Amino acid sequence: MGGIQLCLAGASIGNGNRGVEALGRSVLDVIDVQAPGSRLSAFDDGWGVRVDTSGRYQGSEVEFVGVRLSRRWHRPESWAQIRVAQRLGGLGNPAARRIARSDAVLDISGGDSFTDLYGETRLRSVSAPKEAALRAGRPLVLLPQTYGPFNTVSGRRLAERLVRSAALAYARDPASYERLLELAGSSADPARLRSGVDVAFALEPRRPSHPIAELIEGLPGAPVAGVNISGLLRDAAAIERFGLVGDYVATMADVVRSLVDSGAHVVLVPHVHVPGGGGESDIAAISAVVERLPESARQRLTVVPSELDAAEMKWCIAQCDWFVGSRMHATIAALSTRVPACGYAYSDKTHGVFDTCGVGHHVVDARRVSGAEAVEAMVTSFATRDAVKHDLDIRVPEVVERARQQLTDILDDVRAWKKGLTLGAIA
């Protein structure tokens, strides 16, 4: 098939967010198989250049390259330093050199971070590798992701410029595709604006060597209900930041209690790990929920260790009979392994992904309902899991294949560009 040189941005594999890791690993896994002999430079927020030592990639050379917004502007990882290096030819800076020599820069924006919803600094960070690719004159490929919302004029103008300057752009659900078309404008080449699916559908689950695997496999015959509790939503600041209604932790505690009362064994699955368990760590949120439960309920709980990687977490989720979560990629791990799932969502992105699998009606919006009403909706989803499982068995294999095929199509495009076929911006 022929090797190519690629940079992958917006999917930091080692940052503790298993959803973002799932995006990065999914892309690298497919490229490793479909384009052996390639050199893949995955940007992350680490320091320096580090060769992958996992042994996971047999056909390609994979390395991790540190990049970040930093006040240490003199550091080679700083986007300010990378920008200066590009103006001087770029060869003295590791990231600038790899961008300049790449056949394309693939950018996925963490799946859902190409927005000003999380603030100006986050948008600047997400936009930096896109800007760097364009400065170097390299093809920018926007991998399947969510676009927006953009609540500021400056944020929307930036997004419009970057989308129109890209060589190829994918959205990961129909709603995002409509927003992508709006950003690209009427003069855009429609052949290079494509509707896709979240690449994490392609991630292969891997049984962990950790004792948790035997523990989950040895659970009693009761239905296994997986529950993800998001550390992003556990404190009062989330109410203002995302417009939540009610007490998120109290609602999730009531969900767990109701599932146990229904006869289920509950497996609690953290999907974001922060060292020490602080900040947005899901383990902190899980602990807050467990503290609210009676001892009788705690005896029917199993907590998955937060240090498992994305593929191992996906294996654990795949062992469940039903799953509910607020981290969208935790629910994707369920849906992609045909586990009936419910999303307790804080943004519209979850609806789009669930609609992809035909189960959009199993999304409960935390901005509209909480407490008893939300618990009832989630428990109803649990009760109808057998019917949903039948539907997923039919629909999901096609979605998983689309996740892989869209990456193969992108590689075909990159090879064509490498051969000198005419390439310009989308608009």
Automatic annotation (TrEMBL):
Alphabetic keyword roster: Transferase
Domain Polysaccharide pyruvyl transferase positions: 85-347
Listed name of the protein: Polysaccharide pyruvyl transferase family protein
Transmembrane spans: none
GO-annotated molecular function: transferase activity
Superkingdom to which the source organism belongs: Bacteria
InterPro entries: Polysacch_pyruvyl_Trfase
